[in-house]
Design a protein that fits this description.
With 605 residues, the protein is mainly beta. It is 0% helix and 51% strand. The protein contains no helices and 57 strands. A hairpin with a 2-residue loop joins β1 and β2. It is rod-shaped, with a radius of gyration of 74 Å. It starts with 5 loop residues before the first strand and ends in a 25-residue tail after the last strand.
Length: 605
Amino acid sequence: MKRLSWLLLLPVLGGALFAQTNYSILGTVPPTGTVATAYSASLSVSPSFSATWTIVQGSLPPGLTLSGSGTSASIIGTPNTAGTYSFTVQASLSTVDVLVAATQSYRVTISLPTVTFVSSTLPGAVVGIFYNQNLAASGGYGTGTFAYVQTGGTLPPGIYLSGTGAFSGTPTTYGSYSFTVQATSNPGTYPPSSASATFFISVAPPALTISTDSLPAGTVGATYLQSLAATGGIPAYTWQVTNGSLPGGLTLDLTGTIHGTPTTAGSFSFQVTVRDGQQGSASASFTIRIVEALTITTQSPLPNGVVGIAYTQALAATGGTPPYGWSITSGAAPAGLTLSVAGGLAGTPTTAGNFSLTVQVADSAAHTATKVFTMVVGAAVKITTSPPLSDGTTGVSYSQQFLASGGQPPYTWSIAGGSVPGGLSLGTSNGVLSGTPTAAGTFTFTIGVTDSNGQKDSASFTVRIVVPLSITTTSPLPGGVVGAAYSQALAATGGVSPYQWFVTDGALPAGITLIAAGSLSGTPATSGTSNFTLQVVDAVGKKATAPFAITVSGALIITTTSPLPNATVSVAYNQALTASGGSTPFTWSLASGTLPAGIALNPGR
């Protein structure tokens, strides 16, 4: 505030009257202001009088106005243009008689709003990890919108600055990066207001980490090769075992490769440490399981199968790393059988034969083992003995072997229906029907057979049991007469008809022959006694023999001569007739004519 002396002029009619009085403009006028920021100054005149307020020299900053009346006035408004402005304010009162005035000069500087970055630091970044950070600024002129641009230095590779102040991207290279960013307020309007600042982003390599989670199992005697892996840090890496021990036969080299040929089965735990180029380190614990070599333990040949009978056989393996997976690599399983991944060979064979197949087992570590298997698929069990059975004879030892094929021996035999002849029994293990029949007759029964797999077959049979073959004709045979026709039937019982007869010893009388069906016939030609043996053979070859004799006499002649002695009526008559030759006893008969009345022929004399 300045206090000045002002001249008070008092004009007087017919002359001028001057009186000097000190008048001052009082108040605070801020010497500085800011564009877009409200500005205010209050003025007053002292001693007070009702004044008119005007700018009499210079000009107010654009956006400000002087208003007021009476003893006070105000400079108010919002500056819109930066610069330094000088102006003089006058408070005056003008009448006809008096001119009262007070003036005051001012200098006001209007500045652009200051742009300020809210933060001067940026957080660090990590290689390979997405980075996102926004810059913020305040102040400036306008609506509070800022435009950002890099004006110097270098951003980390992979990170970019957007016009809105966003740093984003995935850094690719570790290091410390310095760059300058300019923030401009209210871009596109005038006057612009900006500020620049230098920022730093430190990009660290990713944390050193062992990325291998686990190690596969190994097999005794099989080459093992497995590399450990790490991420982050600063390559190159070096590796070493820092606790525990690797399986025997394996080593870890500096590059992180475990290699060698395991010598001992077991589970081995150890710790490895990796160090990077700046001696950062990371450690992890591992376990390696070493197993025995993968081997198929199921023996060949496989158990036999039978057509039509369900078959199942589990294949087994040891060693390696379960679970196992099974497959056929060459050959083929018998038709109707399949091999599952779990190692089960199962199904129902449909074709008999000999089969060979190569089976492979693979463990979870991709180790494999193979083995060639053979197996036989037999036909279904079947009774091969065909009827008819041989006949048997009461009292004579009998044996009949029943046979079967196919299936899976040994077989078990049984009487599945009917009854065998009395005195006979069936061997359950050998299938022999044997014994000594006790009763004749025809017997029908069913023979059953069961193999070791439970498969069955049956067949019906009939056996005839007869009484023993014997000749019933007795000796001697009726005699014959030379020249007289001779016929004699032979008889036999038992056995199986028809019979056939044979002379096995001696000779028949001359002129007599044996008919095979069982009779002697002919005309004897020579007298005498003939001794011979006859044999009868039945239909199944059973035989019986008996000795016989036939006596052949000379021709029969009546030796009583004719005429016979005379007879007298009413006197008893008796005359013996005689004969020779032939075979006695003789039988007499009247061949022709008529005897006298009262006389009769006695046939036996």
